[in-house]
Amino acid sequence: MAEPLKGNVLLVDDDPAVAKVLGALLGQAGLTVHTASNGQEALTLLGRKPIDVVVSDVRMPGMGGMELLAEVGRSWPDVPVILLTAHGTVPLAVEAMKAGAADFALKPFDREEILFSIRKALLRAQQQEGTRPLVKEASSFIGGSTAMAEVQAMLTRAASGTATVLLRGESGTGKELAAKAVHDASPRRGGPFVKLHCAALPDTLLESELFGYEKGAFTGAATRKPGRVELAHGGTLFLDEIGDITPQVQVKLLRLLQEREFERLGGTQTLKVDVRFVAATHRNLEEMVRKGEFREDLFYRLNVVPVWLPPLRGRPEDIEPLVRHFLDVHAKANGRPPFTLTQDGLEALRSQPWPGNVRQLQNFIERLVVLSDGPILTGDEVRREVARQPGIVPAAPAPTPASPFPNAPAMPAPAGGTGNEGRTLESQRKEMERQALVDALKRAGDNRTLAARLLGISRRTLYNKLEEHGLV
């Protein structure tokens, strides 16, 4: 028997009967269910409740499911969306997946199928928590360094062919952006660009996501479901973190790359597919091959056109254009006026090692935009925010393990006496934690998602702490 599901589901459907039946089903499975009758009501609830997954009908008056999917992706990118439709076709699935849907299910829905889809979405969201893609506005690489010019030239040359491209480099260097650049510059740009994060799912779910499944293949497989390979037919399939797949999946992936054919889980029919593969990893695959952790033949199949993305510390001349781009993007996104960065502010940014590369720089600039008092960003402001993030500067003090708020103000030193005077360490910690919550909510304009980001915690942790301190 499957474990009870845990989490908050937002069910969006304009049909009260469907909402009642499906809501009862999800509640029986252990989920906390919130309901909305239209897209606008759903957006309001998302701003107030700690929603873990959205299940929405596609066709509704006013804002439909696809429009709601786009709004959720913009404001709550960590919340997966599952779409329900009575018109389930592969073209619709392609459209939904390209738009960012976590999954889709057919009406009339099957109990096991919808619970299986929700379980997948919850698991993927939990394992990907804390990761954020580079801003969508960056449709091409920013910067004019020699290193990035070489990368762009390599990607352009690779795009014109059909050979598999393997993107290498540290986390945060823009491998997904590079994969999309290959697709957009290729003859397949009119086809789908389908992504699969290989490290986010265990074997069983990864195989079903990759190859799809037949009805009855396992508990929850109530209908035939196309996998990402099938959805990418005529386009590009991006396999992120390919170094994290197990030997069992490596065998099946090798056959797919060699023969361009596969079977759905539980099926016997061999399907041919026309797909261009782009893979990415931050791992040392050569070392993994030597240790027997990665198949040598699969490595050679993937490593046809290797492209290395340099770390940000290896192209410091790109920091200025990246910073100015992110300042513009995040000022507009947060309703702030244009920002001016002083020369000493730029030098303070250049002096940082940025181990998280472009992604870390982007997140830091967003933080600067949100927390700054005015449109002029100086070196002092940059250094102040750097000091609040121990992860950037090795010499900074580590946060207290007992608290999830690494940016909360430090405890004041006692002025004489023991400093206890009726206040225990725990009571002082709670007071500081509560104040950190209040300050973050104020700076974020009561936007809970932004407040969680400012505190460096997940939305789930934020809501738990707000409830603990009576701030809900």
UniProtKB/TrEMBL annotation:
It holds the Pfam family AAA_lid_14. InterPro entries: AAA+_ATPase, AAA_lid_NorR, CheY-like_superfamily, Homeodomain-like_sf, HTH_Fis, P-loop_NTPase, Sig_transdc_resp-reg_receiver, Sigma_54_int. The lineage of its organism: Bacteria, Pseudomonadati, Myxococcota, Myxococcia, Myxococcales. PROSITE patterns: RESPONSE_REGULATORY, SIGMA54_INTERACT_2, SIGMA54_INTERACT_3, SIGMA54_INTERACT_4. It comes from Archangium gephyra. This is Response regulator of zinc sigma-54-dependent two-component system. Signal peptide: none annotated. Residues 396-412 have a biased composition (Pro residues). The modification 4-aspartylphosphate is found at residue 57. Residues 141-370 form the Sigma-54 factor interaction domain. Residues 8-122 form the Response regulatory domain. One of its GO terms (biological process) is phosphorelay signal transduction system. Residues 394-426 are annotated as: Disordered. Keywords: ATP-binding, DNA-binding, Nucleotide-binding, Phosphoprotein, Transcription, Transcription regulation, Two-component regulatory system.
